[in-house]
Amino acid sequence: MRYLTAGESHGPQLTTIIEGLPSLLSITAEKINHDLKRRQGGHGRGRRMQIETDTVEIVAGVRHGQTLGSPVALVVTNDDWKHWTKIMGAEPLADDINPEDIKRQISRPRPGHADLVGGMKYGHRDLRNVLERSSARETTVRVAVGSVAKALLNELGISIVAHVTEIVGIKADTSLIEGKTADEIRAIVEADPCYCVDPEASAKMVEAIDEAKKAGDSIGGVVEVIVEGMPAGVGSYVHYDRKLDAKLAAAMLSINAFKGVEFGLGFEMARRKGSEVHDEIIWSDEDGYTRATNRLGGLEGGMSTGMPIVVRGVMKPIPTLYKPLQSVDIETKEPFKASVERSDSCAVPAASVVAEHVIAWEIANAILEQFHSDQLPQLKAQIDEHRQYTKGF
């Protein structure tokens, strides 16, 4: 599978086209909209979330609720576009209008954003041309794409859920989810303001977010994605670009403001001996091959082991601050405080939703690379056969 997205933060719409989905997969706007609403939620979100109510329109590739096998096109309209039609319009400027008179031009790049380097790369003196596309607004349709991928994974017996494990040093007690299914974890997460499984930690996170907002500052954190029901042997060890963990890591780091990724014990492995890191292999008639532990996060040699895949990503504090950092005006070269756009004091809860969906896409894509099928029933049969094969290997 593959997909492309198009659209600017204050443009008329965000668009995506997905190619390679099997036919006969059930897809509804209602389910996608549920995931889009979650992306807009979470404590710490800014005023933009009050302006936009993201809903998807399925405009191609689906008939009567089922995919056709042809490309699927999704559109999310930007409600705020009506206030930006002259600023962001696609039509050339009239001859009697000076481009420098267009409102909301930006010449003061924000530290930590793509503004300055993006302007250098594409030759934009008005840095709005950079920030409109580099904005995390684009993750809206990436969540929509991931929601479609989750529909496919659900048909294959694979569940995925994300939650917040840390915000500004406040760590959740993740032992609270031991023994719980992905659906049980989701029920807890969706009822929590910080999308956290630990209510005590969540309350402290809310306080920290409110303090950061009051101070005009921002804070970051860590999110965790768990994938259950993954067949063993998806991915490959034979070449670098076929390793599943590499693909998942790239997907996580492709999310705006994400700067680190780890699997299982992650960086804790550097502080442990090998006997405290690797997962012993066991076998039973009922379950086939499993692991006594899951310290490696469900991945060995670039392949899924059949254990839950556990991947975490670290999100830096959002660099748009209401007490801006120093920057330089690219026109005058004089020092100034950076420009301020609408922003969040903390987007870690929302980012956990994005992480869930970009990981879902990579998992679904890896499966379709390995189990080729144009029709969903054929794909399900292949997966069932593979599971039986690996169980009795």
From TrEMBL:
It comes from the Bacteria. Reduced FMN (FMNH(2)). FMN binds at residues 133-135, 256-257, 301, 316-320, 342. The keyword Membrane does not apply. Pfam families: Chorismate_synt. Keywords: Amino-acid biosynthesis, Aromatic amino acid biosynthesis, FAD, Flavoprotein, FMN, Lyase, NADP. It catalyses: 5-O-(1-carboxyvinyl)-3-phosphoshikimate = chorismate + phosphate. Its EC number is 4.2.3.5. InterPro entries: Chorismate_synth, Chorismate_synth_AroC_sf, Chorismate_synthase_CS. The keyword Lyase applies. This is Chorismate synthase. It comes from Lysinibacillus irui. The gene is aroC.
